């Protein structure tokens, strides 16, 4: 078999970062009548390029195949819309945008962000590949082109609509298979003195906080500032500033400009690069050891579940997020170790988790069956969910989070 090639520099990918085995696409929830059929599993084998250090999952699943996945992003939470509003306010002030400016957002979804741009009287355009979602944005009055972004599309859109002062790609960069072509698309959309912002889950946080359940097939690249700079440089873009955000367990927002017009880099760029070097992210060897950390975390979870079963205790799950599917499939947890899970999404209720076939019930199931332990799968929302589950303390339920370290409380 020929080795997969690095999507940034084209080298053979011979080094493993972590191998989570075979897993179905994490958003492929199953109906009852699908349980007796075959299910397609794909590798979750994450590599690191020994030439350019880009940590990446080969495109086992192409972008077009997971198209419908975008449907799940359509109803952003209140906190996400508020995040977008704060971003727009900060960008308008920082770049001095006004009625003469033009803003483009890539993966603009239903216009959750651009509505704030429009409300300030600034011309804007969305680029969104999912036709049904683009239609929702247009109905709200947000002009939207239905395309995947690449250099060709970016050039065409700029020729038709003009070049942009600001291009936002805040929830997409890590999720495009051809990341260099995408970055060239960003450059094609920009005026020579324009600015592009991207937001990426930060590899440093993934490693430090053991966020291996954020690894899934549509998450193609696991970026540091070191590698992000390299990708953008291929497209003629230079990072001039960076912010550390708390979203997705710890993200970076980079501000970049066409290289020939770039302003000097901020101290924050130097600081994040220093942090990454201290953590070893400037060498292949510095990335070693994560696979062992993941195995240990998996062992802790499985040991807990087996011990609970031997003691005659019952364990139910809370939540059915995509990340829970990475975790449970990797650990080989089935209904024998986790009776069921519950989710507030009526779409998921009555369905089954991909791969593990664990049933998803409405939250009321917890009060009916009174499990001894409740495993919180979206453990990043631990505080919020702990408050929601306060009523389960009545029957003495204890709550469990699997990561960053298994904890029963
Ligand atoms: Zn490479």
Q: Can you offer a commentary on this structure?
A:
With 409 residues, the protein is of the alpha/beta class. The chain contains twelve helices and 17 strands. It folds into three domains: 15-56, no CATH class; 63-287, Vaccinia Virus protein VP39 (Rossmann fold), CATH 3.40.50.150; 304-408, NAD(P)-binding Rossmann-like Domain (Rossmann fold, 3-Layer(aba) Sandwich), CATH 3.40.50. The chain has helices at 78-95, 114-118, 131-139, 151-161, 179-189, 203-208, 225-234, 267-278, 290-310, 322-331, 364-369, 382-388, and strands at residues 15-23, 42-48, 55-56, 102-106, 123-127, 144-145, 164-169, 190-201, 221-222, 237-245, 251-258, 315-318, 341-342, 360-361, 373-376, 398-401, 407-408. The N and C termini lie far apart (47 Å). Mean pLDDT is 93; it is low at 68-72. The structure holds zinc ion. This is SAM-dependent methyltransferase. InterPro entries: Methyltransf_Zn-bd_dom_put (IPR013630), Methyltransf_Zn-bd_dom_put_sf (IPR038576), MeTrfase_14 (IPR013691), SAM-dependent_MTases_sf (IPR029063). Residues 247-404 form the C-methyltransferase domain. It comes from Nocardioides panaciterrulae.
CATH architecture of the largest domain: 3-Layer(aba) Sandwich
Write out the CATH superfamily name of the largest domain: Vaccinia Virus protein VP39
Number of H/I helices: 12
Q: In total, how many domains does the architecture comprise?
A: 3
Q: Give the averaged pLDDT, no decimals.
A: 93
Bound molecules: zinc ion
* CATH class division of the largest domain: Alpha Beta
CATH topology term of the largest domain = Rossmann fold
- Side by side, the strands of the main sheet go 6-5-4-7-8-11-10
Q: Shape, please?
A: globular
Low-confidence stretches: 68-72
Say how many strands there are: 17
GO molecular function: methyltransferase activity
Domain C-methyltransferase: 247-404
Domain Methyltransferase putative zinc binding: 6-67
Protein name: SAM-dependent methyltransferase
């Amino acid at each position: 078999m020929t080795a997969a090639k690095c999507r940034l520099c084209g080298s053979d990918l011979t080094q493993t970062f972590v191998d989570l085995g075979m897993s179905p696409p994490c958003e492929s929830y199953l109906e009852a009548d699908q349980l007796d059929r075959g299910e397609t599993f794909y590798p979750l084998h994450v590599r690191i390029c020994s030439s350019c250090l880009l940590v990446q999952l080969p495109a086992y699943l192409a972008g077009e195949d997971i198209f419908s996945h975008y449907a799940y992003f359509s109803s952003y939470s209140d906190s996400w819309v508020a995040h977008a509003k704060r971003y727009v306010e900060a960008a308008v002030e920082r770049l001095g945008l006004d009625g003469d400016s033009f803003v483009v957002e890539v993966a603009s979804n239903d216009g959750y962000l651009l509505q704030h741009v429009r409300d300030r009287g600034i011309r804007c355009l969305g680029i969104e590949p999912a036709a049904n979602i683009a239609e929702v944005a247009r109905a709200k009055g947000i002009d939207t082109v239905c395309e995947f972004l690449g250099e060709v599309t970016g050039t065409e859109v700029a020729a038709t609509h003009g070049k942009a002062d600001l291009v936002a790609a805040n929830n997409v960069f890590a999720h495009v298979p051809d990341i260099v072509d995408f970055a060239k698309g960003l450059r094609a959309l920009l005026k020579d003195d324009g600015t592009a912002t991207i937001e990426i889950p930060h590899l440093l946080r993934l490693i430090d906080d053991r966020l291996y359940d954020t690894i899934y097939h549509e998450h193609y690249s696991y970026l540091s500032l070191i590698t992000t700079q390299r990708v953008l440089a291929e497209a003629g873009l230079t990072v001039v500033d960076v912010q550390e955000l708390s979203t997705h367990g710890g993200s970076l927002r980079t501000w970049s400009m066409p290289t020939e017009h770039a302003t000097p880099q901020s101290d924050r760029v130097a600081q994040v690069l220093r942090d990454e070097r201290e953590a070893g992210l400037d060498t292949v060897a510095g990335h070693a050891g994560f696979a062992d950390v993941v195995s240990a975390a998996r062992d802790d979870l499985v040991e807990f579940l087996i011990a609970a079963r031997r003691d005659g205790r019952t364990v139910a799950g809370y939540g059915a997020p995509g990340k829970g599917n990475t975790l449970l499939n990797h650990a080989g947890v089935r209904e024998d170790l986790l009776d069921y899970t519950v989710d507030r999404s009526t779409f998921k209720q009555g369905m089954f988790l991909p791969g593990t076939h664990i049933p998803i019930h409405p939250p009321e199931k917890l009060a009916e069956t009174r499990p001894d332990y409740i495993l919180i799968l979206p453990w990043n929302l631990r505080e919020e969910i702990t408050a929601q589950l306060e009523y389960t303390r009545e029957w003495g339920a204890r709550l469990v989070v699997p990561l960053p370290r298994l904890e029963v409380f």
